[in-house]
Amino acid sequence: MDYIKEYKQFVSSYYFNEAIRITIGITLPAIVFSYFGKLEIGLILSLGAMAVSASDIPGPIHQRRNGMLATVALIFLSSVITGYINHHPLLLGIGLTVFCFSLSFIGAYGARVNSIGFAGILIMILTLDMRAEGIDVLIHGLFLVAGGLWYTMLSLALFGVRPYKIIQQALGDNIIAIGDYFGTRALFYNKNADYDKIYKMLMEEQQQIQDKQTLLREMLFKSRNIVKESTVTGRTLLIIFTESIDLFEKSSATFYNYDAMHKRFDDSGILSAFQRMIYVIVDELHQIGLAVQSGRPPRATRKLNNELKLLQSEYEAFANIYRTPETFDALVNMRKLLQSVEEITLRIYTLHHYTRYDRKKIKEYKLSGNYEHFVTKTDLDIEILKENFSLKSNSFRHAVRVTLACILGYVIANLLELQHSYWVLLTIIVILKPTYSVTRQRNYQRLIGTFVGALGGLALLYLIPTQNGKFAAMIFLMIITYSFMRTKYLVSVIFMTAFIMIFFYLLNSHDFYEIFKSRLIDTTVGSIIAFIAAYVLVPSWEKTQLNTYITNALKTSKKYFETVATTFATGVLNDLEYKLSRKEAFIEQANLSGGFTRMMNEPKSKQGDLKKIHQMVVLIYTLNSHIVSLAGFVRGFTNKYGDEDFHAIKDDITAELNEALLLIEHKEVAEAQHHAPIELKEELDELVSKRRLELQQGLVETETRKVLVEFKPVVDQFLFISRIAGDIKKLAKSF
User: Fold this and answer.
1) Residue 480, CA distances (Å) to 13, 367, 504, 561 in order
2) Same-domain pairing of 264 and 309
3) What is residue 419's DSSP assignment?
4) 178 and 102 belong to one structural domain
5) Do both 80 and 154 map to the same domain?
6) Is position 629 within any domain?
7) Which of 122, 192, 278, 523 is the least crowded, having the fewest Cβ atoms under 10 Å away?
8) What is the CA radius of gyration of the chain?
9) Is 57 left (phi over 0), alpha (psi -120 to 50) or beta?
10) pTM for the complete prediction?
11) Are 180 and 124 contained in the same domain?
12) Count of domains observed in the chain
C-alpha cells in the first residue's frame, strides 16, 4: 500500500474537510463561552451546532441551506415541547411516540429530510435529561437555535469562500473509486481467478460508484451557477464529470469470455501484460482524482504512454506467434481489447488535460444542456407520505420499529434506574436502520467500538498529564471521528467514545469513572434492544424485495439494449436517450447488487435461494457489461449491415428478455422460437471460413479481413447478449 498516496487522498477528501468544519462548529461556542465563565451556555450552543451539522449532508447549496434552517426550527420545537412535557409521564409517552414516529417516517422523502428528522429526535432525547421549568425551557431552546444558526453561518461562509471545493472533492473521490474498480477488474487476468469473488467485489464497488455519481448529479445539475456554465471552474467540473461517466462505462465493457481467454492464452504472457497496463491506469486515475480533490493539476508523466507502447509491442509479438487459421478469430477479440485499452488511455490523457482548467480548451468542449433529465426532482408532496403509510412500505416499518424500540428503551432505562437513560435511546436511534443487515452491522460495530474506544480513552487520560494536552487530544479525536462517520463507522465509534470519555473527564473528573461505567452499560442495553427490535418488530427482509429489484434491473437493461441495438439496425443514435438508458440500467443494477448483498447478511432462515439469486445478479451484470461493449462500436460503425443483419436479432433478444420478465412476475408466457442468432452466426461462420482459407493461401490483407475485423466483434457481442438473455430466461423459470 502507498501510504503517502492514501494520506494525501484522506486530507484532501470531503470527509476530512467536513470533519474540521464540524469540529470547529461544535467546539468553538463552548471554548468562547468557557473563557467568559459561561460554559453551560456554551455547551447548549455546541449541542445546537452538533444537531444542525447532522443535517448538513452534501448536495446543492440551496438544499443544504434550507435543510439547515429547517433543522434549526425543528430542534427548537423539539426542545421546547419535550422540555414542557418532561415532568408529565403520560404526555411524555405520547410526545415520545409522536416525535419518534413522525420524524422517522419523513425519511420517505429522502436522505436530507431523514437527517433533519434524526436531528429532531436527537435533541428530543437529549432534552429528556433536562430539568428546566417555565421560561428556562424557552431560553434553552433559543440557545440551541443560536448554536444551530452559528453552524449554519459557518457552513455557508465556508462555501462562499470556496464554492466549488465540495464538488471537486466529491468528483475526485468518484474518479479514485473508478480507479479502484479498474483494479478489481484487473483480477480477471490472474491465473485461477475466483470469478464469483471478483464479480461480488465489482458489484459492491459499482453500487458505491453509482451512489457517488448520483450525488454529483445532484450537486452539479441542480446548481444554477454551474449549469449556466458561467465560470471556467464550473464548466470544467461538468466536463470532468461527463468524461468520468464515459470512462466508467468503458471500464465495464467485456470483449472476451475470461475463462476461454485463460484456456487459450494463459501461457503466452499477454494476459499479465494487460494486467500490468491496467494497474498503471489505476495509478493514473488515483493521481487525477487526488488532483481534482486538491484543485491542483496532476504531475505530468510519461509512464502511461510508455506502458502503452510496451503493451502494443508485446501484443504484436504475441499476435505474430499465435496468428494461425485456428486462432485468428480469438485474436480479433484480443485486438479489440487492446483498442479498448488505447481508448481508455486517450480518455485519461483528456482528463489530465481538463484538470489544468485551460480556458481555451474548456470553451471548445460542447456540453449537453439536458441536465434536468438526469436528476430527480426534489418533491415534498404529501402524497408520498400517504403512499408510504402502510406496512408494505419500508419507511413506515422503520418508523414503527424506531418508535417501539425507543419506548421500550425508555421504560427499561427507568426500571433499571440508569443514571443516563438518554444514552440508551441515543444508541437505539443511531443503530436502528431501515434494513436488518445494516442494523446488525452497526450493532456489532457500536459495541466493539464503545469498549475499545473506552479503553483507548482511559489510556490517553493516563498518558497525557496536562489539561491542555487532554483538550488537544479531544479535538484531534473529534476530527478523526467525523472524518470516518460516513465511511468507516467502527473507526468513528472508537474515536468518538475516546473523545467523549476525555470530554466528561474535563467537565467533572470526580464522577468520571461512574460516567465511564454508565456509558458502557447504557450502550450495551441500547444495543440489545436495537438488535431485538430489528429482528422482531415489523422486520423488513430483503428477499421480499428481490423480485422487484430483479424486474427493475431487467427492464432497464432491456431498454438500454434496445437503445444501443436500434443504432446498429438504423444507423441513428439518440444521444440523450442512450445516456438516460445507460444511467437507469446502471442504477437499477446497483440497487439489485445492494439488495442481494444485504440479504446475504440476514439470518439464513430469512434468506431466499442464494445460489439462484446470485446467478441472476451476475447474469444481469454480465448482460450490461456486454451491452457496454456493443455500445463501444456504435460511433465508428455505419449502417451498411443494418436492416437485414441486426433487426432480427435485436427483436429476438428483446423478446427473450420480455419472456424472462413475465416468468419472474409469474405470468403466462407463450414462448417462441428464436432463429436470428443462429442465422447471424452462420453468416459470421461463412466469413470466418473464407478468411481461414485466405490465410492458408498466404493472403493477408484482403477485403474479407477488413469486413471481418469490423463485423465479427459486433456480431460476437450480439451473440453473447443473446446467450445471456437465454440463460436469464431459463433461470427465470425457477423464480
Assistant:
1) 13, 39, 18, 45
2) yes
3) T
4) no
5) yes
6) yes
7) 192
8) 29
9) beta
10) 0.86
11) no
12) 4
